[in-house]
Design brief:
The structure is a single chain. The protein is α+β, with helices and mostly antiparallel strands. It folds into five domains: about 260 residues, 3-Layer(aba) Sandwich (Rossmann fold); about 80 residues, Elongation Factor Tu (Ef-tu), domain 3, CATH 2.40.30; about 70 residues, Alpha-Beta Plaits (2-Layer Sandwich); about 100 residues, Ribosomal Protein S5, domain 2; about 80 residues, Alpha-Beta Plaits. Helix 6 crosses helix 8.
Length: about 650
Amino acid sequence: MQEIRNIAILAHVDAGKTTLSERILFSAGEVLRAGDVEEGLATMDYLPEEKDRGITIEAGVAHFEWRGVWFNLIDTPGHIDFGAEVDTALESVDAAVLVVSATSGVETQTISAWNKLKKQGVLSFIFINKLDNPHASIEETLFEIEDSLGVQAILLNIPEYSNGSLTTILDIISKTRLSHDSSGREQAIAISETSKNFDIYFNELIEFTSIFDDTVLEQALNQVKATPKQLIKALQALVQSDDYVLCYAGSALHNKGVRSLMTGLSFFIPPPPNHIQNVLGQVIRLRFFGDHGEVSLFKSMTSKSTLDLKGLQFYRMKANMLIPVTEIRKGDIYAMKSVKKMELGAFLDFNGSLLKEKESKKTQKKSYEALLQTQIECQSIEDFEKVDHSLKILSRIDPSFSVEMHPQGGYWVMHTVGEVQLEVLLARLKREFRCEVKASAPEVQWQERLNKKTNSYTNSFQVGTNKVSISISAKPLPKMERDIRLNASFLEEENREVLAGIRAALLETAEIGFLGKGPLVGVEFKIHSLEYTPGINIGMIKKACTDAVLLLIKEKDVFLYEPYMLLYLESPVEYAGFVTNDIQSRQGIIREVGGDGKTHFLKAEVPLRNFFGYSTVLRSISKGKAHYEMQFLKFKEKAF
């Protein structure tokens, strides 16, 4: 059976990640023309919002074959608002390529992506991009990789220049020169003589591989040069060490160095471990395509004819194109349509049925820090059900986005990671679901916490012959905890549906909060008593619980905590004073400064509420020459 490898491409925004993906597909003959992100023609960026913004939003999946290996290529977003796409992609891949721009170096999201890769134990390679820029330096970039990522970088190809322009790439292992043929693809030509620069990196390669292979070591001691086959064998052992990373260099835009990377991936990614036994596969992502409705991305854990699987249809996926298949292969990734609703992380048995959660060991839904909240209202009351249904689909597709109906206001509250994610969701709501809604201006989502234990409160109400009465109290949990807990031990033997209804009512009410600033977190609710008419509608019990909580907690019982961000900023030194003064005027606190005489660097702790639209302000202050990144830091108690 053909070997299958699943790989992800990660990077900081604008490092050239999607461009590299396009050139890989072009080099493998999967596309006749490599699409350009700037022209909105990238194969992997299929959403209109991606083409308009020039960024990746949904992790696109395509495939290619190289040296007899079948690769599934997942192009992940670089923008911080879409980190959930990266997380779910990494759960299903065998290796990843981290793209580093030689002009910008190791940036904030580069480090974040690297940390994710190491945390999840994903074998990683680095592609140093944009070496066509005359100001780029391969040596400086390698030093920065080693210094910032804490790993020994081993370069396996080097750029060649003529009159300041990148012309060709030298592959160190094979001792070949990669130049373009008439179609624009790279072709390898053996070289008879090597340069001093080539010899430096070749000797370095021998030095590190000899640690992992006795044959290479013995030949080095005897001044005999190792063969490509011997070096490949040694590198296959070296890549298993967390202390090293294999690096490839070039220009994705001009398709230079891409062939070396592809060949390296075919050599150095080991076979994946054995999959879970007696399982057909796992749902690794959810998608919504207008022509197909809801579609699952599915990783197969066995080989099987799809004709035996009733209610399921499988497709080969190429961006947003779905091509039907009649069989699935172990370890491969497909798009899947099902008559049943699928859940992210769910496993299917050999018959295509959902396994029970306990049996499937379903992956935990990660927690994402929602920092913005926005109110959504229908333009027309007739659209209420349609909007509600569409919002629920979007929240199922994106685990970092959530939405709740306000229990009294008759509108929805959307919780998003950032402004870009919010704008994309609203655009998709209108374009894909034909929902006309009215959205408020986004507000910073604070956290609410109880400042003391409350007395119990009893709420009762009756509709016809049905009556319900519930007594409830609340107490704060330690500040580090954010859970909503339920203490109702006497209900454990009651109707499970009743207990589930009470839990849902508490979670929904806490998510909305009590001061309109954000959710209530870190609280334990205790049910002291519950009486209800046998056979009562669960909705009445939920309403009694919701109303009790709304009457139980007063504004004076709540403290507010606001989100603070860590701001990383670089600007030319001539604008340093203006930038610093502006940050301080917005209540930011400068924590660290530095620079090299030309570029000024600073790190600051800033309140998110004062940094809406900061990109426009910074562009004006620095005449477009400064750039920044923000990451969530902490919630800080607000002093009034």
